[in-house]
Amino acid sequence: MRSTLPALVVAAALVAGCGSGGSGSFQTHSPIAALPSPKACPSPGVMPLPSPSTAPEPPADKSVVLATIPFSSGSAPESVAVGFGSVWVITHHSNTVFRIDPATNQVIASIKIEVPGQEVGVGSVVVGTHAVWVPVGVQPDSQLWRIDPPTNQVTLKIPMVDAGDLADWADAMWLDIDPQIGAALRRQVVQIDPNTGKTLRTVDLGPALISPRYTPALAYGLGSLWVVVGNNQLARVDPSTGHVIATIKTPDVPSGYGTLAFAGNDVFIAQSDNTVARVDGGTNCVDGVAYLGANLPSDKPVPPPLSIFTASGGLYVSFDRGALALLDPGNLTVRRSVRFDVQNAPGRPSFGFGSIWYPTFKNDSVLRVQPLD
What we know:
It contains no helices and 30 strands. By secondary structure, the chain is mainly beta.
């Protein structure tokens, strides 16, 4: 049943931030001189964002929790993805991918991510058209591991320096080269053969911007690749040609566990100032901003990263260490928000099998949640 509780403060405003209609050129391992410059978008004015202190607390509501799936103490579930008839969970401390059967809410397989003699850090689990993928940070290099769903076995380990986010769909698979992990000098996305791991094409996006602020991210939607390339820039790339279609200036720094999402003809960007920016896919201009409040303890004055994803009924945002909001993507109003808990760190939820799968990092569990609409 839909609730209209005003649990968050939201400001929807036209914002100065926009895209260029100019084009870069497709590159095969050679750099372009620069990204297209953002063009000027209409900006009638920006409404001031409310102070975090004025944001009402989302109501605690565990009635929407359909099941709680426990994990071993200290394992810290961090990222969830859905596909191949299952829910896939990666844990931060145990470096293990768990497979959950949504019919029973039970773990039916576990795949250990281990590299003997190496320090291993794992990225978010990604379920694509071809397989389940896990970026594995192995110092001084990194790899991309492919898990074969029919066997639950790791069938491919692709050496890839600074492997980051990836998008795997029917026509292609692209990997984001993340310069913040290691020593890459260029910002790139590469097309990879999902069966052999061979690099097919490379689009070079110019010199890497080493910064602790933005979260490098890549996603496929609206027929394009969308790549976070800096503290206030998002590049739109044509995957069929490698052309950089537009450079979009974001109102704040793109940052989140799930940074990019799509609804209708719009792209949504999680930002470090606890806002979600909306980009019109037709104009490549930012045309709205939604602010999500945070009631922060004195010892944790900085809001945790957001995570955004599209699901039944609209756009979902995980925020403020254990809260979840449903936004209307058209007018950026909050349709409902709930709080499950107060976590010491957020995770990356996902939607599938009619439910939201919400990792609770501190409580070592994944919540199965009914949609909030």
